[in-house]
Amino acid sequence: MKIKSNVIKQLRKERLWSQEQLASASGLGLRTIQRLEKSGNASYESIRAIAAVFEVEAQSLFYKDAEFTGYKHRQVGYTILIVFFLIVSFLFTIVGLAIDSVNLDDDILLIAIGISALPVVVATILFSTMTIDVSQDSIIWHFSFGFWKKTLALSEIESATCVKNSVLNGFGIRMLGSGWLYNVSGLHAVHIELKSGSCIRLGSDQPKYLLSAIEHAIDQKE
Question: Per-residue pLDDT averaged across 21-49, rounded?
Fold first, then answer.
């Protein structure tokens, strides 16, 4: 069940309790408390235990199905894959010509190409996909295999809009004025202005759906 982790955190802090104290009072494990405050996932039995401790209705601590719909999408970095193919093809050509000019054998050619292409292969694997997950409390995004995982609390967001990147902005992780761009393919993105004055821009092939999910999650918190 999706719980209102922000409400539970607030109730806990009002009592000046640590997570350990809440775990002890509710009879739940510390890891359970940590998980439900971080991810917003818990069983109904856990919710009932916490509701009893805080003397509130259990229904006030979780979202009904119609109240919140999460968003999770993995975008394939087609642009990154195309660039990888072009770079490796170029390396094959350049290294091949260089080795032919000094009459080296094929084994050395393959080793040289492998060494030259290794950084490109690693970068391509890491940036071949980007996953964005919008929960009722935060936005989490990361590249392939959980690489460069970031979390942004919804409470830090001032505004969000759909934008179109310039080709010059590039792909991967890029500095963008007062913030950062995260993108693996295409030019569309959601630009997020933070209350701190900095910004984050998330590349997406579903910018309108992503923006709608962020706005919906923020509305549920207000």
Answer: 87
Q: Which residue has the higher pLDDT, 2 or 176?
A: 176
Give the C-alpha distances (Å, rounded to integers) separating 16 from 10, 13, 49, 60, 72. Answer: 10, 5, 19, 21, 34
Buried b (16+ CB within 10 A) or exposed e, 157-193: beebeeeebeeebebbebebeebebbbbbbebbbbbb
What count of other Cβ atoms lies within 10 Å of the Cβ of residue 139?
A: 25
Closest CA to 142 of 77, 83, 215: 77
CA gap 19, 133 in Å, rounded: 25
Q: Tell me how far apart the 2 most distant CA atoms of the chain are, in Å.
A: 82
- Residue 138, both tokens: 């935060």
With both helix axes pointing from N to C terminus, report the angle between 44-54 and 19-26 in degrees, rounded to the nearest 10. Answer: 100
Structure tokens at 196: 């701190």
Which DSSP symbol is given to 175? E
How confident is the model at residue 221, as a pLDDT? 62
SS3 call for 210: helix
The answer to whether 172 and 127 have CB atoms below 8 angstroms apart is yes
pTM listed for this prediction: 0.62
Q: Of 180, 184, 164, whose CA–CA distance to 172 is shortest?
A: 184
